[in-house]
Design brief:
Shape: flat
Radius of gyration: 16 Å
Helix content: under 10%
Order of helices and strands: EEEEEEEEEE
Number of helices: 0
Number of strands: 10
Strand content: 35-45%
Structural class: mainly beta
């Protein structure tokens, strides 16, 4: 496989249970692997029988690893469980100056209450710290893959 030869591929195919994979972010790990994280939405059936699969559906933040520069992917796992009333979504991961990984994401309790939350990992994304609420307004989310590491760390 020639790493200089781009290849188009579907990494996360849609399924009946998980029709939407969106808001992705990626970071290179210290060993050269790539960690891809994204919002993994599942279909829900409302009491009236209609399906809910948009931004207000249940979702967790999933992760998957590439050991070959993005040509193949393996070891999908849950990075952040859905501990919110609606979902957790829109992650952004960056490497901090101290070498740890930082992630911020939206924790959506409802359509009127949401916050951005920060976690960090000292073991390359295997485990994450306890979440710290970064916003305190009634409803504040953010676009995915937006996290800036300042020069000061």
């Amino acid at each position: 496989m020639n790493m200089n030869d781009p290849k188009r591929q579907i990494i996360l195919p849609s399924t009946a249970e998980y029709p939407r994979h969106s808001e992705a972010t990626a970071v290179q790990l210290k060993n050269g692997d790539i960690l891809l994280a994204w919002s993994k939405f599942q279909v829900e059936r409302r009491p009236d029988g209609t399906l809910l699969s948009g931004d207000n559906a249940k979702a967790h933040i999933a992760g998957i690893i590439s050991k070959d520069g993005g040509y193949t992917w393996q070891d999908e796992r849950v990075l952040v469980e859905n501990t919110a009333g609606l979902n957790v979504m829109a992650p952004a991961i960056r490497r901090m100056k101290n070498g740890a990984l930082a992630m911020i994401y939206s924790h959506r309790e409802s359509t009127t209450e949401a916050h951005r939350v920060f976690v960090s990992s000292e073991d390359e994304g295997e485990t994450w710290s306890q979440p710290v609420k970064m916003t305190h307004d009634a409803y504040k989310t953010g676009c995915h893959d937006r996290l800036t590491v300042l020069e000061s760390g």
